[in-house]
Design goal:
Peptidase A2 domain-containing protein, three-stranded antiparallel beta sheet, DNA/RNA_pol_sf, Peptidase_aspartic_dom_sf, Cathepsin D, subunit A, domain 1, nine-stranded mixed beta sheet, alpha+beta, 2 domains
């Protein structure tokens, strides 16, 4: 495998030799990226292995990567997280800080160029706008979720392992002690009434001893953004 400079800007090309033949893939040099990224189409015929990583900073939602690919250049191994082909990037991947450090890259911002080790050609022009990637492994959160998950009374050892794997993979959707439970506006629901007259029922008369407890619970849910104040004419206590 070898590389050559071909694309303008902060983009360079790597020639990859795989079982399916040689292919040219373009990579964006990004000193702010904490990981290397490669699109799935470039990994065909290359060694890949299972992993679990989360990329934050590209979209509003984190991107879960389940595969990583090893790219070897002159006996130096580089690990790239595999992302879908529709990943929002014009190039085939991102050469982040791990790649640039291993390749002893020297960046001259004033001259807008990147110089790799002497046996490699110079790759000029660093883009002024750098994208930032962040990888986040939440081992502590995973352990907290496992401690609060009570499954010993219904599952055998193999089934518990499957549950732990699901928790590790989708831990961001589970509620952990201390997490807030905000409301969502993703779905709207309407109940059409025949006369369209708002239903308004008087509040129950609570004993004084319960009034303070109710106020505390309402305030707590409001602080955690589970509920919000409303000016709706409807009022029907449950």
């Amino acid at each position: 495998m070898y590389r050559k400079s071909r694309c303008p800007g902060a983009v360079f090309t790597i020639e990859l030799d795989s079982h399916s033949g040689r292919k040219s893939c373009s990579f964006l040099a990004d000193t702010g990226a904490e990981v290397n990224v490669i699109k799935e189409k470039c990994t065909r015929g290359l060694p890949v292995r299972k992993t679990l990583a989360k990329i934050i900073g590209i979209n509003d939602k984190p991107l879960i990567c389940q595969w990583e690919c090893k790219v070897t250049l002159d006996n130096i191994d580089h690990i790239f997280l595999v992302v879908p082909d529709h990943f929002p990037l014009d190039e085939d991947g991102i050469a982040g800080r791990p790649f640039l450090e291993k390749e002893d890259a020297i960046i001259y911002f004033k001259e807008r160029k990147i110089v790799f080790r002497e046996k490699y050609p110079k790759i000029t022009s660093v883009a002024p706008d750098l994208k930032v990637l962040k990888i986040n492994y939440s081992t502590q959160r995973s352990e907290l979720l496992k401690e609060s998950t009570r499954i010993d009374h219904i599952l055998n050892k193999n089934e518990k392992i499957e549950i732990w794997n699901i928790i590790d993979e989708f831990q961001d959707v589970y509620h952990s002690p201390g997490d807030s439970l905000p409301y969502t506006n993703l779905i709207e629901h309407k109940i059409e009434t025949s006369d369209e007259i708002p239903v308004n029922t008087k509040q129950y008369r609570y004993p004084p001893a319960q009034h303070n407890v109710i106020q505390e619970q309402v305030s707590e849910m409001r602080d955690e953004k589970i509920i919000q104040e409303s000016e709706s004419p409807y009022n029907s206590p449950l």
